[in-house]
Every structure is written in C-alpha cells, then in structure tokens.
Amino acid sequence: MPEVKDTAPQGAGAQPVLRLSGITKRFGGLTANDAISLDLKSGEILALLGENGAGKTTLMSILFGHYVADEGHIEAFGKRLSAGSPKAAIAAGIGMVHQHFTLGENLTVLDNIVLGTEPLLAPRRNTAKARRRIAELAEHFGLSVDPKRLVRDLSVGERQRVEILKALYRGARVLILDEPTAVLAPQEVETLFTTLKTMVAEGLSIIFISHKLNEVMAVADRVAVLRLGKLVGDFPIAETSKEALAEAMVGHAIEMPERKPQPLGPVVLQLAGVTLRNEQGKALLDELHLLLCGREILGIAGVSGNGQGALAALISGLALPDEGAFEILGQPVKETSPLAMQEHGVGRIPEDRHATGVIGDLSVEENLILEAAGSPRFCNLGFLKGGVIRRNAREKIERFDIRGADPTTTTRALSGGNMQKVILARVLSEQPKVILANQPTRGLDVGAAAKVQELLFEARAEGAGILLISEDLEELLQVSDRIAVLYQGRLSTPVAVEEADLKTLGLLMSGHGEFQRQKGAHGHAA
Amino acid sequence: MELLDIFITLGFWGALVRMATPLIFGTLGELICERAGVLNLGIEGIMTMGAMVAWMWVYQGGDLWTAVLVAAACGALFGLLHAVFSVYLGLSQHVTGIGITLLAASLSYFVFRMLLPDVTTPPKIEPFKPFAIPGLSEIPYIGEVLFTQSPLTYLAFILVPIVGYGLYRTPLGLAVRMVGENPMAVEAQGIDVHRLRTCAVMLGSAFMAVGGAFLTISVFDAFYIGMINGRGWICIALVIFASWRPGKALAGALLFAAFEALQIRVQQASSAVIPYQFFLMMPYILSILAMIVMSRRAAYPKALLVPFRKGER
Ligand SMILES: Nc1ncnc2c1ncn2[C@@H]1O[C@H](COP(=O)(O)OP(=O)(O)OP(=O)(O)O)[C@@H](O)[C@H]1O
Ligand SMILES: [Mg+2]
C-alpha cells in the first residue's frame, strides 16, 4: 500500500485542510472571483457548482498557483500557501486534474507521471522504481493504465486516469477535479466515483466540479455554489435538492424546454447500407440504415467510440461512404467536401468546440460569420463588410444570450457554454435543413443546456431534421422524437421516445439486442 | 566510371566528415531549441558570431580550446536574447529569430572591422591540427579518414549520443521534450516553463556558435564575410529531416555533407559540359527531395512556435 504521510485530525472542530479567504480575481473589467471564502474539511468531497463562466476554474487555478489572486490568500494544512506557484501547491499536497488535460501527447504515460518528480539535474532517470510505484497506486485505487503507452493512443477515460495518477504519484492529499465527468461515458463515471470513494476513505479530500446535478447529489458531502464570481451558497448535501441547487446557481428557477409533438416533414437525410472503413480496413460504420425527416430529432445514443465520430464525419462532409447510398434532401452526396455539405443545407455543431467549432484566436464577430464569410451578405468584391458583420454580431449576442462577449472579444476567453452559443448562433442563422448536433450540451451548465435544447426545438419547429448524438441518456429521452443506439458501427432500429425505456437502451449500448441487418429497418412506419 | 572513382578516393570521405561537422553542431543546437518549442532562426547569425569570436580570440593570442568556450558563451548570450523576446515576452519566434540573425551577423562583421580596420587580405591564425587517435588511426583506409580529424569533429560526433542520452534518459531531457509538447503540462508539474525554455535555447545556441567556430579555427584559418553561407538554414531543414531526433540528425548532416563533397568533385571531373552552377545547386535539390520523402511522417513538437503566457488561456 502506498504510504499515507499525513493524518490530519478528524472530527468536528478539526482544522480544515484548505482555507480560502477573500479570494478576488479580475480579468480586465471582469471580476471572475469576488471575495470568495471557502473551507475544505478533511476527508470530504466538496462539489463546486456554478454556471459556465461563474469562475470555478479560475478559483481552482488560483488554488493551484496557475493564476495569482488580486486579493485574498490560501492556507493549506494550516500553512500559508505562496501565491502563483504550482510547485508550492504540489509541495503542500494539492493535486489538480485540469478541465483541459495537461498531458504531452507524444510522450508515454510514465513520462507524463514522472515529470517533475526527480531532481532536474540528476544524471539519469529511475524508471524502474517509478514503474513499480505507479503499478502500486494503480492497483490500489483501481486506475489501470499501461505506463508504456503513448498518451495520444489513450481514450479520454484513460487520459483522465493518468491525470489522477499524476496527482497521487506526487502524494496529493487534496485532489481537485475540474469537470472530470464531462467527457466520460456513463460506466467510466461509475468507475471514477468508486475511485473517489476509495480516496476519501484513505483520508484524502476532494473538490469536484460538475454541471450534472445527479452526480453531485450522488457523491458530494457538501456543495458550494458560485454565481457570477460570488459564493452564493454552501450547504451540506443532505439539506439540499437538485431543484434548490439549480436555482441557487442561476438565481431563478430553470424551466426545461418541453418537446411538443409535431407533424413530420419530408425526408431530409437518408443513409442506406452505409459502410465506412478506417485506413486499416476496420468498419467504423457497418451497413447503417438511417432516415431522418424534417421536424424531428433523432437521438443517437451509445458509448462514444462506437462509430459516432464516423457518422459525424460523414454528415460534416469529411468522409464519404465506402459502400451504400448517402442522400441529403433527395440528392446523392458525391464528394468529400464540408463546403458542399454546407451548401446542401447541413448545419454542424461539432463535438470538440475548441478544436473544430471555433477559432479561439479570432473575435466573436469573426467566428459568427466563419461559414458565410464569402456570401454577399458579409462580403463585397472580396472585401468584408465590417459594419454589417459588427451589427450581425450584436444581434446574435443579444438573441442567443451569449454572455461575457462583445463583438470584438477573443473567442478563447469565453466560457464553454458561451462558446457553444456562438456556434449555435452561427449554424442556426443559416436556416439549415439538416443539423448534426454532436454532444451539444457537453460541459454546459443546466441553464445553458436548457437554452441549447430550446434552440434545437426552435430549429425543429422551422422544419429542420436534427441528428443528436449524445452519451447522456437522460437528455436524449427528454429531447428526441426517436432514439436509436449505435454499437460497434451498427444502429439499432429507432424507437419512438414514448416507447423507449432506460433498461433496453442500456442493454443495447452494451451490445445486447437487435441491430439492423437488412434494408428498411429505419423505424418509420411510412 | 568517374563517379565510382570519387567514392573510392579517401579524400572524398575525409571531406565528407569535415563538412558534416558544423552541420552536426548546428543541427543538434537547433534540435534542442525546437524540442523545447522554440524555433531559432537566429542560427545563421549565431554561427557567424561564433566563427568571428573564436577566430578573433585566437588571433589576439588566445588558446584554441578557450576560443571554443568563448564562442559557446557568446552563442548562449544571443540565445538568451532570443529567449527574452520569444519566450518571456512571447513575441513571434520567426521575427525575433530573423532579427537575431541580422544583428549577430552584422555585429560580427562590425566588430571584425573595428578591431582590424586596415587589413585587406584576411589575416591568418594557427588552427586546430588533425589529431590522429593512437591505434584507431592506424586501421588501414578508414583510420586515416575517420580517426585523423580535427578534435572538434570528434566532439561533434560524441555530442550526438550525449544529446540523445540527455533528451531521453535524464529528467531534464524529459522536461525539455514535454515543454515542446505541452508547456501547460510542465507548469502543472511545478516546473518553470520560461526558465526551462530559456536554458534550452541558450544551450542550443551555444552549440550553433561552436559549429561556426569550427569553420574559422579548424577548417580555415581566417574569418571572412559570408563564410557561413547558408549552413544555418540547412540545419533548420535538417532538423525536420531528422524528425527532431539526434541520431537521424547525424544521418542527415552526413547525407548533406556527402552531396556537398560530391558536388565539388563532380564539378572538377566533368569540365565544361555542364554549367558549374548546376553542381552548386545539387546538394540543395537533393536535400529538398530527401525532405519530401522523410518528413511526411515527421511528428513535430506540438507546442513548437506556441508561446506560453502564465495566467492566460
Ligand atoms: N485568462 C483569462 N483571461 C481573461 N478572461 C478569463 C481568463 N480566464 C477566465 N476568464 C473569464 O473569467 C470568467 C470565469 O471563467 P472560468 O473558466 O473560471 O469559468 P467556469 O466557472 O470554470 O466555467 P465552465 O463551467 O465553462 O468551465 C469567464 O467569464 C472567463 O471568460
Ligand atoms: Mg471551468
């Protein structure tokens, strides 16, 4: 068993492991953290809740020394922590799993974990000892990964385990997890929670950030809520409820948009017997049949990695089927071209907003016209129409409630939810006939997720057919008209949401049940 | 056949090893910088500076090995300058690098003229003599080629495995590789990104300067204007050719030097038929071809050219 070097006194009145006092942080005119005081007790899981942009990551970055607070100070285990130094934070026993992983892709798992633990000027590395210790920790906390593998070959879940191991390897007594579940599949979330429980049982303390209230209710002992940079609530989990938390976060009760049945429109997208292979010849999509009509939302459930990426690539114009027919609005798709897809009337909400959704270094107004920059609306004889673009941005910011943004703000500085709204604003204003929404609410707070769903419903009412790919079954059940499960490149026969139940879907997601074999099994009576 | 004759002459192989030496220093230096995520286009100027400073040191009565150290220190100083702009201030690495090249090259000529205002033919010094390694140099044929070289050539060849070991087997090397991949990962493990990158750039620049010094205090015995003659730029290409690996960098440097040595000899052999400019072009064309073949698979350091600013996202 790994040695446990600290045993902070337990029980009531015990000294907190962390004490944040009056932390204030400003970015230009924006106050991201406003005089926040917060304690973390030994052996507890504290959930930190708040809307996108409430300042959760900022607060944790100050705690870990990435940022320097403008005011306030931090004590760890009773000792004042020197500001702005991750080194000091690590030495004080704080470990952090960042919202965007901090791993070197072309290095091995071992390299990533060991970095910084040996004296930099040592003449050689002691990898044998490191490997043994990693194996011990992995075994003890149920975090299996192969230390020899390159990080770029790992799944998101595995990468996260590497991040946690990194912290444990350095002897962390306090672990900060910034939205650890946003990118995990449901089973992986379960595993993570088991690991967290083991850690707490060993006396570690945990700060856990999540937007999913169910998770918070399930694992946390205490919840702190941030709103617009201020601490607005700090309750033991037993004294609160999901609804109360949601309200504390947003400041008012949240209404989830309601799905109203609508008559189906004409078929907008059709895949018949589509097979798509990767370079090694493995079928990513395997004789897939799919029919999407106007005014409907077809939910695609399934654990990611079962062909979702390939399906999205197909509809985004990044790939063509190796076999089978692919038609949009009755027209066969013949070329691999995102531009052609756009012209066909396909709107795309990509999975990774940072990588393929927006260009972080460009301003909000520029990102809002990325896909229409060449159209006569925004461009005249090869010159952009600055005034029109600015006005367009103002109007979109207003209509889509994009917070913290001016037309000229650099998009990188926006919080996740607001970045997503920029993408939605761009996509929906082109009146697409087909919308590919790939994990559109991943990492979004309850309010922002509700807003996104509402916008999807609006697009549906205007006649668009929406393909919604998501790992969140609850969301799918709430938003979709029909649901199908993707498993190893095959699609189950879509069922109307009224007839869908969690149990069957769950079984399908792990490959148990009926998957399409022959043509015509796309679940429409017509 | 004349071409075959060239390959069997010992002079060709000796020249190859000699011509590869400055390229090995320069490529290793550039490789260290780029592995840490900093492109160093100052290389051409830093090599010029190294060449001038080392020569001047010896000309003023200094010792040859001290001259090497002085050149290295001078290179490190220009590396520091590059780092202040491109690492600490996060300015464009391209612009800063070109600036360093212009500054260092012009400053070298300026200092040279300042100290020696009146000379017309470049004065000469007593350069490194080939050192025959006892025993090894007596091996027939190859002994004479490989083991009767300038001590700086041996140094270049020894540095290849040392740099390889340093990058892959030491904690510092791991940190350098990581900072070129993802500086945030380095910061999150409690290591100062700016300091680490600066050290790497200074070390790399020191190597470059020694590459320049080799030309003036080993191959030739004088310093003259334009003597680096694009070798620095070749090193930049060689780093890509080598996919940022020291072993392949050695291979690349040897290959280019082979083209270069061949070029001189073919030019002499085939007199008036083909214009000599064609032969001058040859090494560059061949290296472009080699690059096209080799570098398609190159996995470049992810954070190359990306400045790191603490407290920003
Ligand atoms: N380095 C920075 N420079 C400028 N503004 C910043 C910076 N970091 C954060 N901000 C701003 O501070 C606010 C708080 O951001 P933060 O990332 O802490 O939010 P969050 O609560 O973690 O949101 P999310 O749930 O989307 O992760 C946002 O408005 C963001 O735009
Ligand atoms: Mg955050």
Spans of at least 5 consecutive residues with low confidence of chain B: none
Radius of gyration of chain B: 20 Å
β-sheet strand percentage of chain A? 15-25%
Structural class, from secondary structure content of chain B? Answer: mainly alpha
Query: Could you name the CATH topology of chain B?
Result: ABC transporter involved in vitamin B12 uptake, BtuC
Number of helices of chain B: 13
Rounded mean pLDDT score of chain A: 89
Text of the CATH class of the largest domain in chain A: Alpha Beta
Number of folding domains of chain B?
1
Oligomer: heterodimer
Helix content of chain A: 25-40%
Total DSSP helices of chain A? 17
The largest beta-sheet of chain B arranges its strands as 1-2
Largest sheet of chain B: 2 strands, antiparallel
Question: How would you explain this protein's 3D organization?
Answer:
The complex is a heterodimer of chains A (526) and B (313). Chain A has 526 residues and is of the alpha/beta class. In chain A, 31% of the residues lie in helices and 24% in strands. In chain A, strands 13, 16, 19, 20, 21, 22 and 23 form a 7-stranded mixed β-sheet that branches. In chain A, helix 14 runs parallel beside helix 15 (446-461). Chain A is globular. Chain B has a single domain (2-123, 133-297), classed as ABC transporter involved in vitamin B12 uptake, BtuC, CATH 1.10.3470. Chain B is 70% helix and 1% strand. Chain B has helices at residues 2-8, 10-35, 43-59, 64-88, 93-115, 142-146, 151-169, 171-181, 183-188, 193-219, 231-241, 246-269, 276-294; strands spanning 131-132, 148-149. The termini of chain B are far apart. The interface between A and B is medium-sized, with 38 and 24 residues. Adenosine-5'-triphosphate (ATP) binds at residues 27, 30, 32, 50, 52-58, 99, 404, 413-417 of chain A.
